[in-house]
Amino acid sequence: MPNLILLRHGESQWNLENRFTGWTDVELSSKGVQEAHEAGEKLKAYKFDKAYTSVLKRAIDTLNIVLKISGQQGIPIEYDKALNERHYGALQGLNKAETAKKYGDEQVKLWRRSYDVPPPKEVTELNPMGISESLKDTAARTLPYFEAKILPDIRAGKNILVAAHGNSLRSIVMKLDSLTREQVIELNIPTGVPLLYVYDKDGNVREHKYL
Q1: Catalytic (active-site) positions
Q2: Which of 71, 88, 116, 123 could form a disulfide with 22 if both were Cys (CB 3.0 to 4.6 A apart)?
Q3: Cβ of 120: how many Cβ atoms within 10 Å?
């Protein structure tokens, strides 16, 4: 039976600093590197046919560490921005606690966790294009990619590893677990902890759990 492993990147430097990151390309923190090593140790028991990742450094570095530790550096890897983190718009680079003081806890929670409310789109130094995404917007690019690229591999019996981000993975988990918009608000995917989905021969999920 094929396995799908979803892995959020290890803690980034901006996770450590409690800042909105989005598409900003930041490094892993020392803890994030350690989390990636620990994930690699856990995944030694699994053999992958292919890996997918975003084009952001924190996910790519996490994947490379995992594959090195688990002895699977030779497998094919596909990189695509469809798996990038959601774009946090004008919030990118801001400290989350300071943002909550300015806008209120409930508003910030709505921007962070709601399904269809995007953050402010104002042009800033870290958002020169003046864009932002809700989880719905993120899912609109992540899910078609998942269904067109990753799911066919699983249905062909391949074991797949996906290294991505909190919100791109939330959109996938929302689909796989049939979560409602209300349920996904409370969904948090931890950094560096592999999430295993086991499929049957018909391409249906039989079980899932964190490793």
Answers
A1: 9, 85
A2: 88
A3: 14
